[in-house]
Amino acid sequence: MRVWVDVTASAHVLVFRPLIELLRRRGHEVEVTAREYAQTLQLLELHGIEAQVIGRHGGRSRLGKARSLVSRLRALRRWARGREFDVALAHGSHELTMTAHRLGIPSSTTFDYEFAWLQHQLGCRAATRVVVPNSIPPDRLARYGAEPPKLLQYPGLKEEYYLADFEPDHHVLEPWPIDPSRVLVVLRPPPEVSLYHRHANPLFPRTLDALGRDEGVHAVVLPRTEEQREFVRGLDLPSLILPERAVDAQSLIALADLVVSAGGTMNREAVALGTPVYTTFGGRLGAVDEALIREGRLVPLTDPRALELRKRDQHGNRRIRRDPADLLSLLLSAYAAESTASTSAP
Predict the structure, then answer these.
(1) Which end of the chain has less neighbouring CB within 10 Å, N or C?
(2) End-to-end CA separation in angstroms for the chain
(3) How far apart (Å, rounded) are the C-alpha atoms in residues 258 and 30?
(4) What angle do CA 285, 270, 325 make, to 5 degrees?
(5) Nearest to 184 by CA among 312, 286, 281
(6) Is the dihedral angle over the CA atoms 8, 193, 71, 151 positive or is it negative?
(7) Which range, of 61-75, 115-129, 243-257, 296-310, averages the lowest pLDDT?
(8) How far is residue 184's CA from residue 171's CA, in Å, rounded to a whole number?
(9) pTM to 2 decimals?
(10) 288, exposed or middle or buried, with CB in 10 Å at 0-12, 13-18, 19+?
C-alpha cells in the first residue's frame, strides 16, 4: 500500500515512529507530511524520519488558527492529489482526515483526549475510523459522529505501544553537570496555545520557582514554544536546566526521579515508563487521566510543597509493553472498510 502519515505536534513523532517502521518492513510505501510547530521538525530529524513540511501552527488566536487551517488544507490537497494513497493516518490531525475525505482516501485518526471539541468535530466526522483507548466512554465520542463501526478502541495507553521497544539512553544526561545525589525532575509546561487550555495555569510557574531554587534538585524544563523557553530562561534560577534543542525526552523521563507535567503525553509516558508523575493540567481532565488518577498512577498537584522529592529505585520499574502492530492493525482497518464498502456497493 501507499500510506500517508501527517504529523502536527511533537508527541505524534513518537506515536508514528514504530508504526512507520512496521509499515516499511512489510513493504509498504510511507510518505510523511509535517506541520512546523514546537519541536516537531527537530524530533523528526532526531528519529531519522523524512517529512514534507506543509504549514505551521496558527498561534494563540482563533483567527490565526482558522487562517492556518484554511491555508494548510489547500496546501495538503495540492500535495496529496495524484499521489494515489491507499490510506491516510493521523493523530488528531483534522487537516489530514478532511483532506483525505475530500480526495476519496480512507483515513484513520487516533487521540486520547476527548474534549478538544472543534478538532474532533472536524476530524472525526471526516475520518473512516476513529481509534481511541477503551478507557474513554463511547458516549463522549458520539457527539463527534464517532460511533461503531467507525469507532474502534484498544486496551491500555498509546504510550505502552510506541514505547514497547524503548530502553533509555544514559548519554542523554551528558550535556549537563548532573549530581547523582540530587533529585532529577523533568518538567513540561502547559499547552498554552491549545484551544482547550484557555485559562491561565499559575500552578506551573509556582512549581518552576520552587524547584528552581531548591539546591537538592536538578529540574530539566522541556518547553513547547520559544515564548515558553524565553520565560524559563528569564527566571535565571540555579537549579533549572534548559536544553537548547529537542532532546530524547523519553530517556530523560525514564532516568528521572520525578516528572511534573501540565500536558498529557508526558504524564502518560512517565506512567508507561514507571516514573512517578504529578499533573498540573488546568483544563478538563479526560477519561484516560481520570482512570490513571483512580489507579494511583498519576497524582494531581495543587501545591508545589506537596511534591515528594526523593531518589527512586531505578530497578523497581513496572512497565507494560504492548505490541504496536495491534495499534497499526486498527488504524489500517480504514483501508479494509473502504474496500469492503466499494465492493459491496450496487
Answers:
(1) C
(2) 25
(3) 37
(4) 95
(5) 312
(6) positive
(7) 61-75
(8) 15
(9) 0.88
(10) buried
CA distance 330 to 333: 5
Residue located via cell numbers 489507579: 295
Beta bridge partners of residue 153, listed in sequence order: 132
DSSP string spanning 206-267? HHHHHHHT-TTEEEEE--SSHHHHHHHHHH--TTEE--SS---HHHHHHH-SEEEESSSHHH
Angular region, 92: left φ>0, alpha ψ -120 to 50, beta rest: left
How many Cβ atoms from other residues are within 10 Å of residue 193's Cβ?
Answer: 19
Q: How many CB atoms lie within 10 A of CB 45?
A: 15
Q: Which three cell numbers stand for residue 323?
A: 505490541
**Average pLDDT of every residue of the chain:** 91
Q: Which residues contact 286 (CB under 8 A, 6 or more apart)?
A: 112, 113, 114, 115, 136, 264
**Nearby residues of 291 by Cβ (< 8 Å), 6 or more positions away:** 135
Cell for 110?
487516533
Strand, helix or coil at 300? strand
Of 39-53, 191-205, 291-305, the one with minimum mean pLDDT is 191-205
Cell of 30: 510511507
For 140, counting Cβ atoms within 10 Å of its Cβ (0-12 exposed, 13-18 middle, 19+ buried), the class is middle
On the 0-12 / 13-18 / 19+ scale of CB atoms within 10 A, 168 is middle
C-alpha of 29 from chain center: 24
DSSP string, 123-140: HHHH-SEEEEETTS-GGG
Mean pLDDT of 34-39: 86
* Range list of β-strands (E), the chain: 2-7, 29-36, 52-56, 87-90, 107-110, 129-133, 151-154, 183-188, 217-221, 240-241, 258-261, 277-279, 299-300
148 vs 27: CA distance, rounded Å? 30
